[in-house]
Amino acid sequence: MTGKCIGVEDEKFICNQQCPGVGGTFVEGTGLCQCETITDVDEICNSACVAKMPKSKLGPDGKMTITDPTTNKTSTVDPSTLPGYYGSFKCETTNIATDDCKVLQMGMTEDGSFSYEF
Hints:
Blueprint: H1 8-18, E1 24-27, E2 32-35, H2 41-44, H3 47-52, E3 55-58, E4 64-68, E5 73-77, E6 101-103, E7 105-108, E8 114-117
Antiparallel strand pairs: 1-2, 3-4, 3-6, 4-5, 7-8
């Protein structure tokens, strides 16, 4: 995302990269596409698979806590120390029962499309 304006053909190219095989609609101002079809999460990782995946949360201090439910080990990471870090991590919640925020992990493939990290 360079901030430059792009034409319709560029939008189609970007959406074909981000939504392989199905295409999508470019969402202005985001650099992202809304794919025509989305693979259901259960087709990739069912509830038993999801239960084994590490869980992340962001604390009010801006640090991420990662818990591995398989080993029950927890580690804390300061995102600002990670390579490629940009911006600041902040957790703002209206839930008075907790001051942590759930974190969803996203990845990017070599062709520039996004993937979800389960």
